[in-house]
Amino acid sequence: IAYTRGRKLPAFFVRKQAKEHGTRALVEGLAKTEHLAGKKVIASYHNLETTPESEELHQIFLKGTDLGPDMVKIATTTNTPLEMARLIRRSLNVDWRGQILSGMGKLGYDARVALAALNTPLMYVRPAGSDAGVPGQMDHEQAEILTNLLYEPYR
Questions:
Q1: Residue 17 to residues 2, 5, 14, 21: CA-CA distances in angstroms?
Q2: Which of 12-16, 46-50, 124-128, 149-153 is the most confident on average?
Q3: DSSP 3-state assignment of 33?
Q4: For 115, how many CA atoms within 13 A lie in the half-sphere containing its CB?
Q5: Which of 1, 37, 64, 113 is the one with CA 20 to 30 A from 18?
Q6: Which three-class secondary structure state does DSSP give residue 23?
Q7: Distances from the Cα of 50 to the Cαs of 19, 20, 83, 105, 123, in angstroms?
Q8: Tens digits of per-residue pLDDT, 70-116?
Q9: Beta-strand relationship, 42-47 and 71-77
Q10: Neighbouring-strand partners of residue 8
């Protein structure tokens, strides 16, 4: 899915451009266009099956930063304690600048709470009262309560 200037690009256009010019060129071009318009860019990686090993997570981040975004989001499935630990370990081993981590799946909610406690710069949530679009995703009200509990003493 690609957005430019706040509008979602048609899927057929994105596929055609990626096929003709390559995915890398497409993403780099979108990032340049958005930066020229004064917009911030997030390159996003999703793994709907598992959380890769630590070295692979690091390579994903490096490849993402090479595309020219302001931040790289890595969202992985955290169905086991080991998968959740890999994602949390990633957060402990790097500076947060330029990186957003998020868990999905059976332990996705728990992973998001842990990452919020570790100062993830951005948390994706769903509107209050709506169904979860992603397993483990909290709603806006839950996220607000969590961040108030975590950061109120520091405000």
A1: 11, 18, 5, 6
A2: 46-50
A3: helix
A4: 36
A5: 37
A6: helix
A7: 27, 31, 7, 9, 19
A8: 889 999 999 999 999 999 998 887 666 778 999 999 999 999 989 88
A9: parallel
A10: 3
